[in-house]
Amino acid sequence: MTESSYRGILLPERPTHIDVGSVLPDYRAMLLAVMAAIADRYERAPDYPFIDTKLDLITGEDFPPDDPVRGPNAVYGWIQGRGLESLAGHCRWMRRHHLAPELRQRLEPVAAGVLEALLAIRARNAGRLSFFMTADGDPFTLDDEGGIQAMKLTEESSYGFSDLFSAKGMVAAARYLEKGDAEAEAMDYCRRVDDAINEGRFVTDQVSLDPGNPAGPRHGRHPHGAYMIQIGAAALLAEHRAPCSVEMGLRLIRHELRTYVNLNGRVPRLREYDFWEAVDDDGAPCEDDGKILSDPGHVLEFIGLTLKFTSTVRENALADTGQRKEIAEVEALMPALLSHTFAAGFQPGPGGICKGFDLVSRAPANTDMPWWNLPETLRAAAYCFSIARTAGQRQDALDIFSACHNALTRHFVRPDLHLMAYQTRDESGRVAPVIPATADADPGYHTGLSIIDVLEIFENM
Question: Is the whole model's pTM more than 0.85, yes or no?
């Protein structure tokens, strides 16, 4: 099953779950094509021990080798961590379903090599990773003119998203590869990151590559992203039946719902189920120039990761009576949160989900439409369908799934380029040279891991 088996099937606006079954072969083809490209690119440069998705998704060409931000000497901690989790997740999926055994055997050395490289980089950088690193493992950032500026990580350095992504990626890869010492180190790394999030010591390490999406830390602004993504770590630990995973996941979900979501009208001027991106020092929604910003994609990702966590806990019978009650209460909120957020963020004309939405004016604040929020919404919709309590909720979830599937298929997926997706389209629907987070293409993290969950949900019905 390769690109040649991909048919680009679309769904009706009001699909049944039987209709959804017709597109699942395309998703399987997509997963395998992306993984084959990653294996090909790794094998062509045996001295480069990193996942290489350094290709321009508009032109299809590799980035210039001497490009200081996009070339091979700019190693993104985010991509290597995400990529490790992706490799382990795809290999587990392929093994579970007896798919592409030869490809899986090619991917396992990639995961082992990247895991070894990240362990070595951590050892020389006080147990931390950074957004930008050289191929030798030296962290750097960009100065005000966009030039390279060396930096040093120490025991006093904050943990950031590169640590978060890499810790859970290392746990997943070490467990899959049965490397006990590496798994123990990765589990400790994951706990350290979780402590930093829980104690307010986590600081984003993202270097913004899009002027329209400033991403650096700001005094008095406390975003929810780390809590949301760490729910994915809790889900991963629950898959491994780790005893700490249930309380960890519920603590993170509890914080998100109590701090960032308008439930029971606690912020009267906003609408029920509004979910803001950040709070100020007093715990109120952050307001900039009269706007309260929401990132619909982050909310939809939160829904998917939350329901992945709760479903994994249930399947593995990990929760006690009180925890099961809390999980039921959390799940009851998710279909309405999905419908509310999707209605605000989805742009039916160009077909995509806007990057930013103003909860005050009820209009998009950043009209760019990145690719990643569509597969994340597919996962959220699939899980909401699986836990919905009414026929109306189930149909709403399927309708949302259809809209996102059709937008992704029509406007983002490139059948001529490993079935990868354009990174960004603008409000008119044109492909835009905007980098949502990293110049590197997605190594099967947003698209692949989300789609694997979609496949498991609908194939198991």
Answer: yes
